[in-house]
């Protein structure tokens, strides 16, 4: 029965050879030195058990072998726990600072992360200090953007998009060190992908709050209006508003249903989806104006601020007492890992 465990050892070893090379974050379990050592210990124990196993157990081992091989072939990432040194390195790389709240916007390439970062900071694309945007992926490394409002102790991070040659889907969460952030916004445009599911799954393991956001609502709703047969040449002045409202409702319902289905299939709990446009978000944050086309922009900003304060803020009265009455804004307590 030893051959069953031997095959599993070969599969895992082959996978770990590339995994350890490409991803510095390795399994830190059961006293193992690294991921390869952990896999070998596990395989050795499996071989010893297989040597005295009854026939039904051998059959189960064969089934497990097939499932393991298929999962590795598809690039399904194992549970990876960073060591203390890896955690410290990741925090240093993103300039993580106690007393600040660190928001990361992550997702596949081209989902509009940079534009939304700018909008959250009250900047339009192209403004001084704005994150660069473009048709192709413009972010090749994690970029850090402090909030321009000095009263808000927030830092926004633009994470390189997954699904490119530089960022494979299954390595995304660990290679980017997303486990150090205080909150992660999972942003998608056209499709809710396996990469998004992977981010949410890992955030759940690390107890990091997440927000699912669909971007470019204005573009998508405009397309839905056209698909519904609206013709501006035959509009008497009232049909466009009706068509837009109907298309907006359809788009929101379709988005929620799609995400709900994917979350259920992945074994994840249902959660809210925010539908936003970065142009409307800028008006909300910078101009303090609610556009007639506002969907979930204001609610998203409100919920993010409440999340930050609920998790990390020291009550203002306590903060003022601690610093002799000099506190002017919210103070954030350190995150406990």
Q: Could you name the key traits of this structure?
A:
337 residues, six-stranded mixed β-sheet, 10% strand, 8 strands, two-stranded antiparallel sheet, single chain, alpha/beta, flat, disordered N terminus
Largest sheet: 6 strands, mixed
Gross morphology: flat
Strand composition percent: 5-15%
Reading side by side through the largest sheet, how are the strands ordered?
2-3-1-4-5-6
Per DSSP, the total helix count is 12
| Overall mean confidence score, pLDDT | 75
Order of helices and strands: HHHHEHEEHEHEHHEHHEHE
Description:
With 337 residues, the protein is of the alpha/beta class. The protein contains twelve helices and eight strands. The protein has helices at residues 2-22, 35-51, 55-73, 84-93, 113-120, 172-175, 194-206, 217-227, 239-265, 278-287, 297-312, 316-322; strands at residues 101-106, 143-146, 154-158, 183-188, 210-214, 273-275, 313-314, 331-332. It has a six-stranded mixed beta sheet, sandwiched between helices. Strand 2 (143-146) and strand 3 form a beta hairpin. The longest helix is centred in the C-terminal third of the chain and has 27 residues, at 239-265. The protein is flat. The two termini are 42 Å apart.
Secondary structure layout:
Layout: H1 2-22, H2 35-51, H3 55-73, H4 84-93, E1 101-106, H5 113-120, E2 143-146, E3 154-158, H6 172-175, E4 183-188, H7 194-206, E5 210-214, H8 217-227, H9 239-265, E6 273-275, H10 278-287, H11 297-312, E7 313-314, H12 316-322, E8 331-332
Parallel strand pairs: 1-3, 1-4, 4-5, 5-6
Antiparallel strand pairs: 2-3, 7-8
């Amino acid at each position: 029965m030893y051959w069953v465990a031997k095959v599993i050892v070969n599969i895992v070893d082959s996978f770990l050879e590339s995994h350890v090379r490409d991803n510095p974050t390795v399994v830190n379990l059961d006293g193992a030195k690294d991921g390869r050592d952990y896999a070998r210990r596990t395989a050795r124990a499996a071989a010893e058990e297989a040597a005295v196993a009854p026939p039904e157990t051998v059959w189960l081992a064969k089934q497990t072998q097939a499932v393991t091989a298929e999962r590795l072939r598809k690039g399904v990432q194992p549970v990876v726990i960073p060591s203390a040194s890896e955690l410290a390195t990741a925090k240093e790389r993103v300039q993580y600072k106690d007393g600040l709240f660190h928001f990361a916007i992550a997702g596949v390439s081209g989902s509009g992360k940079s534009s939304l970062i700018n909008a959250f900071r009250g900047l339009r694309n192209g403004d001084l200090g704005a994150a660069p945007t473009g048709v192709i992926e413009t972010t090749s490394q994690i970029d850090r953007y402090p909030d321009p409002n000095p009263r808000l102790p927030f830092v926004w991070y633009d994470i390189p998009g997954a699904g490119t040659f530089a960022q494979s889907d299954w390595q995304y969460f660990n290679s980017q060190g997303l486990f150090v952030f205080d909150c992660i916004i999972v942003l998608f445009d056209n499709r809710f992908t396996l990469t998004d599911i992977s981010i949410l799954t890992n955030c759940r393991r690390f107890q990091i709050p997440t927000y699912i956001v669909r971007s470019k609502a204005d573009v998508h709703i405009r397309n839905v209006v056209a698909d519904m047969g609206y013709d501006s040449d035959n509009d008497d002045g009232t049909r466009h508003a009706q068509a837009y409202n109907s298309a907006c409702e359809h788009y929101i319902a379709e988005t929620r249903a799609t995400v709900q289905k994917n979350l259920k299939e992945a074994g994840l709990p249902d959660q809210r989806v925010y539908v936003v446009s970065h142009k409307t978000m800028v008006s909300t944050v910078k101009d303090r104006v609610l556009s007639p086309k506002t969907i979930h922009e204001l609610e998203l900003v409100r919920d993010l601020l409440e999340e930050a304060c609920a998790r990390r803020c020291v009550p203002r009265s306590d903060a003022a007492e601690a610093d002799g009455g000099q506190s002017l804004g919210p103070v954030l307590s350190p995150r406990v890992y």
